[in-house]
Amino acid sequence: MLDNLRDAVRKFLTGSSSYDKAVEDFIKELQKSLISADVNVKLVFSLTNKIKERLKNEKPPTYIERREWFIKIVYDELSNLFGGDKEPKVIPDKIPYVIMLVGVQGTGKTTTAGKLAYFYKKKGFKVGLVGADVYRPAALEQLQQLGEQIGVPVYGEPGEKDAVGIAKRGVEKFLNEKMEIIIVDTAGRHGYGEEAALLEEMKNIYEAIKPDEVTLVIDASIGQKAYDLASKFNQASKIGTIIITKMDGTAKGGGALSAVAATGATIKFIGTGEKIDELEVFNPRRFVARILG
Ligand code: GDP
Prior knowledge:
Largest sheet: 8 strands, mixed
Oligomer: single chain
Order of helices and strands: HHHHEHEHEHEHEHEHEEH
Bound molecules: guanosine-5'-diphosphate
Number of strands: 8
Radius of gyration: 21 Å
């Protein structure tokens, strides 16, 4: 997996085989590692082709060792897949701004809704949370507790099963109250035969509240399912941004790369723990450094 990549970098930098052979071996290892880390195959080949192109067309500057220069190119190109030097734009360009969170159950969607509300409240925005996850009985309660903890109002309708209606009424209420950022937590059922219904519901909520941004919440350990899952969500409601949770765990988040490829979305934040303030603005270079070790 991605651990092999770290070894490959070390081997490349210190190995005794010729430069050309070492480059060839490294590229093969890079492809293998990324594919086994759930990165989409097409994306992997387009990345390695780009690296080969640059090797052909560019010359290492005199102050840097050739092998280090090559690793820098690999690092650059991997970072570019995630947005390069650009940090994602996290401050909305209009007010009011409605964010709809989608994702499968257990990824940390509700926790992330609270973290986001806290993040924006600290930045001085008036924030409202809407609990439209009607399938997980404790979800609304959990959101209400988070809201209380951080002093952010939560709209919910205990016992009501119409998620679309709740989302619509919640957003309307907060708009009337002149809230500046409204975050809508939606359901994330996950089970046989329920996927189609879930996606249909996403679409209906999307149509009803017309959010300014749809954010897909995925777990760092999502693995092979990332590409498919992100594509499906993207079809139901166009995904604009991604938040990767549980980056404090052992998973490296390679699947996130596939989610980015499937949706064209940018990764905005990462979750780094269970606590309300454990949310960081995504940094492409740091993420790639984590992958490359
Ligand atoms: P939901 O079903 O998607 O709404 O998931 P929840 O918000 O209830 O979260 C599921 C579990 O993941 C909870 O135990 C959370 O505390 C935990 N969790 C959420 N985000 C993170 C994170 O960034 N790191 C860690 N370690 N745990 C998290």
